[in-house]
Fold this sequence. Notes:
The structure is a homodimer.
Chain A: E1 6-10, H1 17-27, E2 31-33, E3 36-38, E4 52-54, H2 57-65, E5 69-75, E6 78-83, H3 84-92, E7 96-100, H4 103-112, E8 117-122, H5 126-136, H6 141-155, E9 163-166, H7 170-184, H8 188-193
Parallel strand pairs in A: 1-7, 1-8, 2-7, 3-4, 8-9
Antiparallel strand pairs in A: 3-6, 5-6
Amino acid sequence: xxxxxxxxxxxxxxxxxxxxxxxxxxxxxxxxxxxxxxxxxxxxxxxxxxxxxxxxxxxxxxxxxxxxxxxxxxxxxxxxxxxxxxxxxxxxxxxxxxxxxxxxxxxxxxxxxxxxxxxxxxxxxxxxxxxxxxxxxxxxxxxxxxxxxxxxxxxxxxxxxxxxxxxxxxxxxxxxxxxxxxxxxxxxxxxxxxxxxxxxxxxxxxxxxxx
Amino acid sequence: xxxxxxxxxxxxxxxxxxxxxxxxxxxxxxxxxxxxxxxxxxxxxxxxxxxxxxxxxxxxxxxxxxxxxxxxxxxxxxxxxxxxxxxxxxxxxxxxxxxxxxxxxxxxxxxxxxxxxxxxxxxxxxxxxxxxxxxxxxxxxxxxxxxxxxxxxxxxxxxxxxxxxxxxxxxxxxxxxxxxxxxxxxxxxxxxxxxxxxxxxxxxxxxxxxx
Lengths: 211, 211
């Protein structure tokens, strides 16, 4: 049985990660999001179990105590975590799983699953990042400054990622991301475990070749 | 300066490698073939310097003596070789280079350039391979048997390749191959060496963020 791959995608706020990941999920039917657990309150329109599993701090702490998370972190004052058993179950069914997590979470996942493929999404420039965050208009300037401070630290980690996509033009960035995710499915290990039966690549006993 | 990647593509005769490689070169402008040297006589329509550099056995031996080849081999009674300096020069200009070579050549290249990305193209089944070779009709049955004997040995090496593309439907195989070659350009090392200036990803001294 072909085992799926785990893709860890990180990016500073404003790089366009959420948009790009949603586009990926929509176009590639074998690809699924890992839905994170979080203690942050839902934003308007967010659905429990689809966007996140929204849990209380107490529930979250219980899961941590059970070692149920592949990674977890406190970001901007809220807890986020990836449920390990859930991810492993999806991978074993041959699905590719996307983890949309920050740099610290990515480090935890890499230490636990060294085969994970890591992708960093970069804005085309610092200025573009500032502009995108300011344009959103949903947060006050102090919060944006906190995000930018985190962004600066995160961008320094880019060289620890396997792949890097610069999101200047969304369509081009999407094509690049799609190629990265598609290519992984052509790794020999995966093809031989799933799509082709190697015994069909030997002459059968009644083959003309052996006559 | 962004350095290109070397792709080593191998396949048994009849797997459709030449067609797929030609399609790649046509669609991806930064991708070039490494033109091999060979002592085999040109087939109708083949152009010297484009399909191969056609040389005499004596010329070939002189190049071998000069250690001019990244790899060379005798296949079906003829010599084939890849000119090392030529490939290195293309890579250093940021181009991706495709080496269309057999399993033995691939081993030599990997030992000299461990960063080479290796791709194996498989037919969907042994029967399909036999049928394709017989349908060509350009060779007698004994030659086809020799090719099939080589094919059997080559297919055994598939697990030494990074990627594996099953050429059942040509269009799908091409998409897979394209994704593999495209993804390599998104490796962080390449992106940071070429497409993005990391200094542009830090706030400038007059940035709002620092005020």
